[in-house]
Each structure stands twice: as structure tokens, then as C-alpha cells.
Specification:
Low-confidence stretches: none
Strand order of the largest sheet: 10-12-11-13-14-19-18-17-15-16
Mean pLDDT: 94
CATH superfamily of the largest domain: Class I glutamine amidotransferase (GATase) domain
Strand content: 25-35%
CATH class of the largest domain: Alpha Beta
Order of helices and strands: EEEHEEEEHEHEHHEEHEHEHEHEEEEEH
CATH architecture of the largest domain: 3-Layer(aba) Sandwich
Largest sheet: 10 strands, mixed
Distance between the termini: 63 Å
CATH topology of the largest domain: Rossmann fold
């Protein structure tokens, strides 16, 4: 089936429509991800809500799909764009061919386009709203793209958060385990697994849960998860973080990092084309070591807006100087922009979960 991607600025990319392309047109902000593997984790990452993702790896789908690789109960992205889409699944773990997996979840795929040309266009002009369609005129699809809401100013955390609180996976020694209350702004399953692996009990709560209700659970620590959209409209989350400051140790990642920056009096801004991929070099200022990290964010915290008498800037992206981590100088709070649970590089960033546990243990003592 012939299908097209039409961007809001009129640029058209023609290719082959697969999965649900003929029945469920994809519409959202178009971004690119440079990861070589992990396409199923990308598809099911709630941080991609409202977005169409172009993968830059040459072939996608070759090792199939398995329920063990899902980061959420379903894919959250609006559409997938690839150069070559494998019709075969060659891996012993595979339970399903990726095309049938995405068709079952009504995710459109556009394949056989020049993904390099699309990426260059987005890098030069910034991310664009776009629509994957088949059987409609280019003019109609462009009008639909222009009518989509802008990502800036949109609170998407409420669309992906859990409807009710639930318990995460149990740690090996639950009776001695510290209790972490995790705010779900779009939390990934591997974050819960990492917290359990580091000996924590986890209670996941919806994004709008009041700070007083969190404190009533008597947690040893509070975790602020990743999530999609603009952090600034999430004023409810910023207010809750401020109410928790100094009351309990706090660790945030991704959207949780951005919300932490806002709660500390800082500002956030939208990046030209975001950071999406598993190969971003980040320098840890305390040691000078370079961590190869996984990113998925469209917004960043302005380091100049933070009160540096109170806030230490701990990590920076080596590609563009973006602030990637911060720590409060006196209160038990720290956050990073990247995803430490993914740990794609040789310098494993799982140590951050260990730091969180040590912070909680020290507070309890």
C-alpha cells in the first residue's frame, strides 16, 4: 500500500504503508531516534505519546516482538517511520512479527522512505507536526498536520498516567526494603524493575496525587518518573514537589527532572529537535567520567535560571551543553534528564538508583 508522511510545512515523504497505515492514520509531532536496537521499548515508552518516531537504524523488526520488552501495556507513539521493515523475526525470544504486533495495536508504519532526508529536514528546521496517511490528498493531510496541537503548552502526563495506584514488583527482601512512592507521569516498567532490584518496595501513584496523600504512606523516598509533553502546564506536579521538598528524599528522571527544575524556581525550554536515542554522551561533573546514555526528551531545564547557591549542576550533555542533572546542596533531592534504567553504554548509570537508596537509608538513620 502506498502511503505518505506530510509535514505541516508541506514537505512530503512517500513510501509503503504497513501495519495499521490503511486504517489508523498517525498524527503527531515527528521526531527521530538514533538507537540501533530497542524498537519495541521505544514504541511502548509513554514519553512518546503524541509523537511519530522515525528510527535511523537501517532495518527495524528483524528480532521480532515479545511481551517481555514492553515498557507499558501498549504502544504509545502515534506512528513509526523506518527505512526497511523486516517481514521476518529471527530471534528465539520473539513471540510475534513486529508488523502484526503494531497492526494489532493500530499503529501505522511508513517504510521505504529516505529516513536520512527526513532527519536532515528535522535537524535543519526543527521538529514538525505531521500525518501518516493513505488515500487522502497531500493538501488535506497538510491541513490536518497544521491543525494538531503544539507540543509546547500541552500536558500529556495526564493522558498516560495510571488511573489508580498500584504496587510495583516485589524486591527480594520486602520486609527490610525501603518504600518508594513513584509518581507516574508515564513511568516505564524497567524503572520499577530497577527500583526492586536495588531492594525497594514501590507504590506507583497517579500524576495528580496530592503530596499529603503521598506523605500519608510514610515513604522512605519519592520517585518522579519520565513522561511526555511540556512540563510547564503540569503545575499540579510542581506544587506537589515543592510540598515534598525537605520532607523526604526525591529522585527524578526525564520529565521528573524538568518538573524538579521548575519546583526549584527554574525555567524550561523546548529543544529544536529534542534528544532521542541510546548513544548520547553525558559528563558527570563530580568525576569527569563520560556516560553513554539513553535520552527521550523534547524539553530541557535552563541552567542559568536555577539558584546555584542552592542547586549543584551535576551532569551536562557533550553534544549541545544541555543540563542533564542537578542536585540540591542541602536537601535530599537529585535528578537527571536521561534514562539511567536503560544503561546503553559502557559506563552503567544504574549507580543513580544506588545513590537514591543510600540517600533514603541515610535519611531513615
Amino acid at each position: 500500500m502506498e502511503a505518505v508522511l506530510v509535514l505541516e510545512d508541506g514537505r512530503v515523504f512517500r513510501g509503503r504503508g504497513l501495519a495499521a497505515a490503511g486504517e489508523a492514520p498517525g498524527a503527531g509531532e515527528v521526531v527521530f531516534n538514533t538507537s540501533m536496537t530497542g524498537y519495541q521499548e521505544i514504541c511502548t515508552d509513554p514519553s512518546y505519546a503524541g509523537q511519530i518516531v522515525c528510527l535511523t537504524a537501517a532495518q527495524i523488526g528483524n528480532y521480532g516482538a515479545t511481551s517481555e520488552d514492553d515498557e507499558a501495556g501498549r504502544p504509545w507513539l502515534e506512528g513509526l517511520i523506518v527505512r526497511e521493515f523486516s517481514e521476518l523475526a529471527s530471534n528465539w525470544r520473539s513471540q510475534e512479527v513486529v508488523e502484526s504486533y503494531l497492526r494489532r495495536h493500530r499503529i501505522p508504519v511508513l517504510a521505504e522512505i529516505d529516513t536520512r532526508a527526513l532527519v536532515r529536514h528535522l535537524r535543519e528546521h526543527g521538529v514538525k507536526r505531521g500525518v501518516i496517511g493513505a488515500g487522502e490528498s497531500v493538501e488535506a493531510l497538510q491541513a490536518r498536520a497544521r491543525a494538531l496541537p503544539e507540543m509546547a503548552g500541552t500536558d500529556l502526563a495526564q493522558t498516560v498516567t495510571a488511573a489508580a495506584a498500584y504496587d510495583g514488583p516485589a524486591p527480594a527482601a520486602p520486609l527490610a526494603a525501603p518504600l518508594v512512592v513513584a509518581y507516574d507521569f508515564g513511568i516505564k516498567r524497567n524503572i520499577l524493575r530497577q527500583l526492586a532490584a536495588h531492594g525497594c518496595r514501590v507504590r506507583v501513584v497517579p500524576a495528580k496525587t496530592a503530596a499529603a496523600d503521598v506523605l500519608a504512606l510514610r515513604p522512605d523516598g519519592v520517585f518522579l518518573s519520565n513522561g511526555p509533553g511540556d512540563p510547564e502546564p503540569c503545575s499540579y506536579a510542581v506544587a506537589n514537589i515543592r510540598a515534598l521538598l525537605g520532607r523526604v528524599p526525591i529522585f527524578g528522571i526525564c520529565l521528573g527532572h524538568q518538573l524538579t527544575g521548575l519546583a526549584l524556581g527554574g525555567r524550561t525550554y523546548k529543544l529544536k529537535f529534542g534528544h532521542h536515542g541510546g548513544n548520547h554522551p553525558v559528563r558527570r561533573e563530580a568525576t569527569g567520567r563520560i556516560e553513554i546514555t539513553a535520552h527521550n526528551h523534547n524539553f530541557a531545564v535552563d541552567p542559568d535560571s536555577l539558584p546555584q547557591s542552592d542547586v549543584e549542576l551535576t551532569h551536562f550533555d557533550l553534544n549541545d551543553g544541555t543540563l542533564e542533572g542537578l542536585r540540591h546542596r542541602t536537601l535530599p533531592l537529585f535528578s537527571v534528564q536521561y534514562h539511567p534504567e536503560a544503561a546503553p553504554g559502557p559506563h552503567d548509570s544504574h549507580y543513580l538508583f544506588g545513590e537514591f537508596v543510600r540517600l533514603m537509608t541515610g535519611e531513615r538513620a
